[in-house]
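Researcher: Please translate sequence to structure tokens.
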Amino acid sequence: MTSVSIPAHDQHGLRVFTARLTPEDLRRDKAALVADLLHDPDLDPAFVEIFDLADLSGVGLAGYLTEGLGVPDAAVAADRARLDTLQGPVLILLSKALHGRAATLTPDPRLTLVGTFAEASPPVHFEPLPTAAAKGTLTPNLPPDRTPQRPTRAFLLLGLALLLVAGVTFWLARG
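Model: Translation complete:
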């Protein structure tokens, strides 16, 4: 059994495995099956796909990777023929299943790693907003704060009244 190491910073990677699974295995609870196959109970099954390649009729695995999962065509080009000749169940593990943690997985012997690919992540660039409403300052011109900074007379009178009530209560309790 070879292990598969996934670094913590790998947020766009995906690994494709062939899976020697029975139809009963494919009907099992996905979370339990994923935990059994990859020996990691903390994997998020929402980011793991298990299906039979017969379900991809007309698209093929290479097409599914590029069109469905966003892997660039150039990344799949070298393996396209091999990917499209695969048959039977496959397991696709997206690195997002780890929620940013590093892991070294020891796949079940029924799994065979076919390849590691990466989703396309276009570079981020910022363009100015096209409308005139987007120009100007971000902070509004507010009038100066006219709230007094010292306690008001009402607050002072309330404090004195509370002290007086406390004093009378104490005097009555002792008396």
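Researcher: Any highlights?
Model: The chain is about 30% helix and 20% strand.
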